[in-house]
Design brief:
Strand content of chain A: 15-25%
Largest sheet of chain A: 6 strands, mixed
Strand order of the largest sheet of chain A: 2-1-3-8-7-6
Number of strands of chain A: 17
CATH architecture of the largest domain in chain A: 3-Layer(aba) Sandwich
Oligomer: homodimer
CATH topology of the largest domain in chain A: Molybdenum Cofactor Biosythetic Enzyme, Chain A
Chain lengths: 421, 421
């Protein structure tokens, strides 16, 4: 099964937006066993889109495009593709009614130009878009003039806005694919996610032992991010479930508690899950991470049941007023110190009557460093039903990376305490 | 100038990571006038990488690849490309010394396999990577066997980790490009960013008036995100500066204070800039946005000078204890109410002695909605040296989009107060 993804949008080529479709669609498709083999992005330029679609139709069983279905003059995809595969466009009464209703229900007048979104290539399936005006479209190109022996390809056009594309894909495209393009082979993919260990070390620990399985068809991959390394174990064929399970057993034996989660699971989800299971609560006292930890945790549905408060105490006054950090500590050791981190964590835990409290104080940069406390210096405190722990780390990265890495380290400090006591 | 970008990594094709390189590199290259015409991502598979590089060399003056230069077995790019363009690899003494020093300075043993990163194709320029072990590589493919008449192409290989790639690009690749691939034409690009107005409405207001400029060569584009629409005005050629300036004048006249910033400027940067200029301070009281606003603001260097504290008061107790929200208010109106938003903002402003305070309380979902207050309901309060304002919005999106859109609305409420009084 050859699957290609085409993202259109001049804003992509000019770096105006992040291409979140690539990750989201590739991830969902891989889960379903349709691994994308090539992803291409081109500008909203007729020639570039046409070339990309023609090339993809020449190679792939499934081609998915995103974007270019909107109402504005740079939305070209629908028109272009209809012409490319030789289909006439007609106004679809159902789509037009949906567009009218969409604006009515929002008490907004329907801009005349949105009417163009009701134009559908003949023979195309309309994929309803409850969250927007442009529907998705699906069509089987058969015979396919761009492929040897005219082999058929499925072509699926999706709207650009993520909040429209995502439910449309999950609710409509996924079931359609299983029906019209069933997979020949079993596909199994397992990802184990680790914290606090480098990519080279991960490979040295598991590479040798996994070598025989790789010979037997295991696809072994590593993905390193600041502070994290994912180990991906995949295989395709009959009975590959056992191969991947054996590989997982080896990786778990070697990496143990460095593994914090599987698949897409994020550290913040693990924390919320563990706290929810234990019916325990958490308070946060952040300084240099500036709300990054609180923001990550509150992305997880259900966080409100276990997270009592996150106090981002940027100023010394706020550290004193809301957390009870002592003036002498700030004067004697500074706000970036082991003592301050300890008092922040204990203050947050005590005042919120939480089971645990995490604190972070450090120097995110780019300015504010000193010879004894350079940019990247950070103290992470954890207060709980045990002696307060303080970790002293050095994360000499740019400001945003510093915040993210430090947030992950703080969450991992709590995770280890929760799973190991 | 034809410029193509190739991102390699199986993790990209499986949706394990977000391709941030595409946005970052496309943005930086566009700023320099080297607009990327096509971006491709393929897995860490020899055949796929080779095909992508060969095709790009067949079309482009400049081909940039990312990833595949690491020390692990799925890092294939360096080897493959050397073979493709017929260059032998040799161990570079300078790079090897850098790798040894890199590990020494971190008090870590050098894993033997990192030595492979010192292998450099003959004739290639080594682009020093101070933040990692794998250097970037640049080479002129001349004659280029994949291009008609053997026209030369520049091929630049960059390491995958963003914190290595970004400084390497800015410090080394950007100056190199200006030297080896100078631009023939002037290129001007201006982006105006708007809040709180739909894409269709933006186009209806400015499309007609800009039509003559589009005929004269203006490239007009729109980029819509939840709550925001960017208007991009670009042109290439001699004297295009005037064309783009005239277009900007028209857009500003039509959209006025809906325009919050230009180019890459984010709303949070505008807020920090305005507060810094006015020497005024801000406190935040967040509930349903869960630290998203505080986290955005603290991404901006210098935020600590104007942001006093961000209190994420998820629980009712925290709203009472840290912000002084009255128990009767919570009992009578609920935590999601105009009265609660008002007291949160006024409480944060008073307790922190800030010039302004923003508050947010609402229902992010997916659960917690009621018929009278469905998921998406939100109250945004702004306290300042004027009567407290409360905005009642409805943002019926998924949890993360809800947080982001609401955060933008809150920041824009403050922005309008700062610029209009």
């Amino acid at each position: 099964m050859v699957v290609e993804l085409i993202n259109t949008g001049s804003e992509l080529m000019l770096g105006r937006v992040l291409n979140t479709h690539q990750q989201w669609l590739c991830g969902r498709l891989a889960d379903l066993g349709y691994v994308v083999t090539r992803q291409v992005a081109v500008a909203d330029a007729a020639q570039d889109i046409e070339t990309a679609v023609r090339e993809a139709l020449g190679r792939a069983d499934l081609v998915i495009t995103t974007g270019g279905l909107g109402p504005t003059s740079d939305d070209l995809t629908g028109d272009l593709i209809a012409r490319l595969v030789g289909r006439k466009l007609h106004e679809d009464a159902g789509v037009l009614a949906h567009i009218k209703k969409f604006f009515e229900s929002r008490n907004r007048p329907m801009p005349e130009r949105t009417r163009v979104q009701a134009m559908v290539p003949e023979g195309a399936l309309v994929l309803a878009n409850p969250h927007g005006t442009a529907p998705g479209l699906a069509m089987e190109v058969r015979p396919n003039p761009f492929r040897s022996e005219g082999r058929a390809s499925w072509l699926i056009l999706l709207p650009g806005p993520p909040r429209e594309l995502r439910p449309l894909f999950s609710e409509t495209v996924a079931p359609l694919l299983k029906r019209v393009l069933p997979l020949a082979d079993e596909f199994v993919c397992r990802t184990l996610r680790t914290m606090g260990i480098g990519e080279s070390v991960v490979q040295e620990r598991i590479g040798g032992q996994l070598a025989p399985l790789v010979k037997a068809g295991l696809d072994l991959g590593y993905c390193a991010r600041p502070g994290q390394v994912d180990v991906r174990l995949a295989a395709r064929g009959i009975g590959v479930e056992n191969l991947v399970q054996e590989a997982e057993r080896i990786v778990r034996a070697q990496l143990g508690s460095r593994i914090f989660g599987v698949e897409d699971e994020e550290l913040e989800e693990v924390i919320i899950r563990l706290l929810t299971e234990r019916k325990e609560t958490l308070a946060l006292a952040e300084s240099c991470t500036g709300g990054c930890i609180t923001n990550l945790l509150t992305n997880v549905p259900g966080a409100s049941a276990v997270l009592l408060a996150g106090l981002v105490t940027y100023s010394n006054e706020a550290k004193q007023k809301f957390l009870g950090v002592r003036a002498e500590t700030l004067a004697g050791h500074g706000a970036v110190s082991e003592a301050a981190a300890r008092q922040m964590a204990e203050g947050a835990r005590g005042r919120m009557e939480a089971n645990y409290a995490l604190s972070v104080t450090g120097i995110a940069g780019p300015s504010g460093g000193t010879p004894s406390k350079p940019v990247g210096t950070v103290f992470i405190g954890l207060a709980g039903p045990f002696a307060t722990r303080v970790e002293h780390n050095f994360n000499p990265y740019d400001r945003e990376t510093f915040k993210q890495v430090t947030a992950q380290q703080a969450l991992d400090l709590l995770r280890k305490a929760l799973v190991q006591g």
